[in-house]
Amino acid sequence: MSRSLRPTIWECTYWADPNWPITWGLVSGAAAAAEAPEWKKVSAKRFGIKDSMIPDEAWNVLHRLRSRGYDVYLVGGCVRDLIMKKTPKDFDIITTADLRQVKDTFSGSAVIVGRRFPICHVYENNSIVEVSSFNTYARGSTSNQIYTSKSPHCSKNDYIRWKNCQGRDFTINGLMFNPYAEKIYDYFGGIEDIKKAKVRTVIPAGTSFQEDCARILRAIRIAARLGFNFPKETAYYVRTLACSVARLDKGRILMEINYMLAYGSAEASLRLLWRFGLLEHLLPFQAAYFSSTRFKRKDKGTNMLLVLFSKLDNFLAPNRPCHNTLHEALVRQPRDPLVVATFALALYLGGDMSLALDIGKSINRQHNTGFSELLEPQVWDDKHLVGEVQSLAVSMRRALTEMTDEYFVANAMAKIPQAPSSDLVFIPLQAYLKVLKLIECVQHGKKEHGYEPKRDGNIDYHDLSYGTPAEVRNVFTLVVFDTLYPSNTENQQDLASNQDSSNKTNPSNLD
Prior knowledge:
single chain; alpha+beta; Hydrophobic Seed Protein; Beta Polymerase, domain 2; 3 domains; eight-stranded mixed beta sheet; 45% helix; elongated; nucleotide binding; RNA-binding; nucleotidyltransferase activity
């Protein structure tokens, strides 16, 4: 194309609400001071936090830095999760040492990474512990501006902690925990926002998202994972500045989408992305589906796309981009549920079409009749069933190719009313080729040489995280079968009642 179709931040703002006078959320010093939350130092015992909840790798880093005379704290999401009695995904540390001193403390097992906000990766027992420094400030950050007032008689250490927390994204991530003193420091009302289930920016939302538009995606991810809501100001600027995320580096977008879809909150993430006008910028084909089916922004109902992702959530998806080619292919041409099931089985079996036919035709369970993407079942002979399965594979391949082509992405955006122009493609070539290879075995109807499908009912989450073909095929088939044949089919009109999949169909048990 002759020019980039990615919108500027001003185009984005105008498209969201052309009549709104944009102020970027700046507030006066007096107003900020009036709204400043009370500084709190809370005992960790109040929340039942114990030393055993912190892994050895994090303790090792804490001990080494403290033994050299540096102050150390746990910071961010791990403190939030400990308060909520959840298992943190990562344990991040902040210290009074500068990054060079951190690296010297762990000579040979630490490396400084990052440009805008450098941190130190410390390698401990095959794990990475992120260590940041109080002496590091993000390049281009406006956090040196005072948006809330500090306590008039604060100590030097309090001021240092407060200043650092002011530069963080959300109040619930702006918590520091000294595990030695067993104290949690809360300067921006993070604990209260946890109680209220709110994702609120530390500084005014417009300023925060203008400073780093990736925070918009993090806001969606955190709200989806925790089941939290946005205050009015945060919600307004998430929606208003939604299309600014298209200006992010493709790798960053891919990382954030992976985080949303890979940790059990994919369905909630999709709902929020659609509600706040982000889905059309990141996954325009899926957004076009919502638009064409008149699925409202705040719709609490469901559809086949959301059910597929809800079933995916039950298994913890691999940390890979979700192309969702199966659903896109079904939207274009609805199929018999037996065709879809046989396709999934053939994929699971590495292209063994004969065995897939035998297993598929033996299924006698009622399929979910609430999806327009599925036709009424027919009686198929083997020849025509194979033809339909291979046709579905071709359709999926075409959908996958279009999702990675700027021309087709731009066309998908054009189908969404009032959406700005965009041709953003962030799916990397390597991921595209991996998925393509999985589909080809079904398209050609030949079993891959030397391939053996899994024969037990367990999921190897290590293999899943690395996208091992056998494990990806295993989980894909489980998701498809749980969607086609839900455990509760008594009330097909209420699709939400079919979200419970405690009795999961295991393809390894079908033969």
